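Explain this protein:
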Amino acid sequence: MDKQITWEYKRMSVTDEVLREQEKLLGIRLPDDFREVFIENHGAGPVPECYYASNGNGRNFGFLLALDKDEDGEVEFTDANSPYMKREHNMPNEVVIFSIDPAGNFLCFDYDQLNDGYPSIIFWDHEVEGGAVKKICNTFTELLQMLHEVGDEES
């Protein structure tokens, strides 16, 4: 059963070519399930927006990083995955940030943990030195299926 998700505050759609340029800069290929959602909804946040981590703690998805340039000419997705940011958070190159939650933590793809060719989804706590990393699920589709409204019990 597919979960109904609405994306709020999305930006103008970007082309597949723009996304391929970002992938080339990062030296990765983003998962197809993510690409399909991201091209139409970059910069947006999902509703419902909450999910449960493996320890049972509720978390907020936050919003997808944006691919268009901001007023300073910077691209949020590129900046978040820059060598500077990776050093700042002691993050390995195999980790690619795709979402930032309201507390400033990251949802990331971990290309060091592949499942049938797909990178795992991890939570990166930015307040812990070196990042406290917790695996959330195996694919972006699984993450979307985990989303629920605030206060809904884990299913």
